[in-house]
Design goal:
By secondary structure, the protein is α+β, with helices and mostly antiparallel strands. The protein has a single domain, classed as Alpha-Beta Plaits (2-Layer Sandwich). It is built from 2 helices and 4 strands; from the N terminus they run E-H-E-E-H-E. The chain has a 4-stranded antiparallel sheet, covered by helices on one side. A hairpin with a 2-residue loop joins strand 2 and strand 3.
Length: about 70
Amino acid sequence: MGVRLRLGDPALVESLSDFLRRRECAVEQTDNETIEIALPHELHAEEACMELDLYLRVWQSLHGWARVEIVD
C-alpha cells in the first residue's frame, strides 16, 4: 500500500519519516512537505488504513501542533 502524506510544517518531515521507518515502513520524500510511504507487510485496504491511522495518531500525540493529511 503506497500512501502520500503532506505535512503542514516541512520542518517535521524528517521526524515523521524516521518514526515510520522505525516501524519498518518504506519512506520516500517526494518534495519538501510530502512523503510517500508503504507499510512493511501486505494488508487488506481497511486494515492498512487502520494501521496507518494508528501510526499517525501516535506521532501526532508527540507533536501536538503537527498537521498531516493524506494526499490522493
